Structures are given as structure tokens and as C-alpha cells.
Amino acid sequence: MERPGWAPQGIDLSVPSVSRIYDYYLGGSHNFEVDREAGRRVIRAFPGIPKIMQANRAFMRRAVRYAVGRGVTQFLDIGSGIPTFGSVHEVAQEADPASRVVYVDHDPVAVAHSRAVLADNERAGVLSADLRKPAEILRSGEVCGLLDLDRPVALLLVAVLHFVADEDDPRAVVAELRDALAPGSLLVLTHASTDAGRAKPGEGEKVKKVQHVYRTIGSPLCTRDHREVTRFFEGFAMVEPGLVPMPLWRPDPGDVPVDGPAAPVPVAGFAGVAGVGRKP
Asked: How far apart are CA 246 and CA 271, in angstroms?
């Protein structure tokens, strides 16, 4: 297989990556055929997956604008993936040019492409690290150099915790990150959930097929129910409207209703939950 010029040396082109599959769902170009094939298998099992990812990105953009509107202009985006149009730094720095962003991912393609995109951006940086090792992230030169943890930070854990298995204790990981943040900081989170309120008959079987695909590529997908996801917000006060299906978190003015034939996000967009919490 020919290696694209943007692909870092040492990348195994035969192994799919969660970040690159996500890039494929969003119509990006930084993915390999092995990623596209895995993505197509997921879409065959659950045709609404691309719409779910679009709803996820739309929530992220609204949450970033919410943060800047509340004076939080520092962002730590863990599990950031491959930058696409409307990424955190673009949204935040459009709202306030002084905003600072650190992206964290362990996928080499995501890290390499992020560094290329941000080469001339002095207020944004990229760190190669794993969410499951929060101390390494917090002590890194990128975080210490760009972010002031004595001031509020928006911690983004968007579509990443469902790839952290219970045996890796994701609640302890979130708690360690939370404890390092100043009062007034925000937790911005989305998570795959089977009880987001709009599940239709047969959805459970589709989810199982999706989970099988991710399991075969070595990245098990752990759906959690509303109560389990809510526990990630321990130590945070939930921002209204609380933990809700992604399209229902503070939709933009002018959005048409999410129900009915004119809905901007089909029912598939309700397969994940989203919320924002504020540290008192």
C-alpha cells in the first residue's frame, strides 16, 4: 500500500484507527482504506452514524461558544482527533482571539496533522498522550506552556470516554483532571448512550453490531446509560438543560425543531448524550 505524503513514518496502514474512522464519517481526507472499510461496516450496521457524528460536532461548537461567552477562554481537548472545519481553536479564537487551546490525542496521524494545521498558531498546541494517563497530560510542556491551570479551563471529553473501559476506571481519570482545574472551569462531554430517549425497536441490535466492529479493531465501544454518564459530572454543577440528547443541548437560535420531517438532525442524533458542568 502506498503511503500518503501526510502519513507519519511508522504508521501501520493495515490497522484502523478510531480517529481516522471518525474523520471518514465527517467527510475528511486523512484516513486510509482500512479506516474507510471499517467505517463502511459501521454504517452498514447503523446507517445513522454520520449524522450522530455531525450532531456531536455541532454540540461541541455550541459548547465552545458557551464557554467563551462565560469568560472561559482556555481549552483542553482530550481525544481531539483530526482537525476538521469548525475545530475547537477555530470556534474559540473566532469568538475571542485570545483563546488558547491544547489538543491531546494518541493517534500519530491526528497529532501530526494537528501540528501542521497549527504551525502558525501561537495560541494552540498539540500533545501526543493518552487520556488514561492524566498526570502526564497535566505536567506536559504543552499544557504548562499554554494554559494557566489557576484560571478556569474548559475540559473537553467529546466522544472519547466511551472508548475507555470500566477496568481503566474512567471516573477516576475524570476526577483527577477535575481536581487539577480551577473553580469556574467547565467539563464538556459527550458519550454514546443506548437510552438517550429516542431509541427505536431494533436499535439495540444495531448497536451491538457497531460494538463488534470496534472490538475487532481493538477499540471496544462502551455504551453507558444516563445514570452512568451523569456520574462523570461528580464535582461539577450541571449547566441547563443538563445531560440531554446532543441536539437538545442549547440549540442555536433559528434551528428548526428537532422533531418532524424538517428536523436538522434525524433520530440517530439522539444515540448520544451531551452535557456541560461547571466546577464551583
From this structure: 8
User: Residue 49 and residue 160: Cα distance in Å, rounded?
Assistant: 15
* pTM reported for the whole predicted model: 0.90
Please tell me which residue, 252 or 177, carries the higher pLDDT value. Answer: 177
Q: Are strands 186-192 and 237-238 parallel, antiparallel or unpaired?
A: unpaired
CA 119 to CA 112: how far, in whole Å?
Answer: 10
> Is the model's pLDDT at 244 over the cut of 80?
yes
Contacts of 261 (CB under 8 A, 6+ apart): none
Compute the chain's Rg from CA coordinates: 18
3-state class (DSSP) for residue 53: helix
Q: Please check the confidence at residue 102 and state whether its pLDDT lies above 80.
A: yes
**DSSP labels for 241-273?**
T-SEEGGGSSPPTTPPPSSSTT-SS-GGGGSEE
Q: What is the DSSP letter of 192?
A: E
Top mean pLDDT of 56-60, 109-113, 194-198 is at: 56-60
Q: What amino acid occupies position 121?
A: N
- Closest to 55 measured CA to CA, from 258, 277, 261, 280: 258
Q: For residue 250, with 0-12 CB atoms within 10 Å meaning exposed, 13-18 middle and 19 or more buried, which class applies? A: middle
Instruction: Pull the grid cell for residue 157.
Output: 471529553
Tell me which of 137-151, 183-197, 235-249 is least confident: 183-197
CA–CA gap between residue 51 and residue 258 (Å, rounded): 13
Residues counted in the chain: 280
- DSSP secondary structure letter of residue 66: H
Q: What digits encode the pLDDT tens for the residues 49-74?
A: 888 898 899 999 999 999 999 999 99
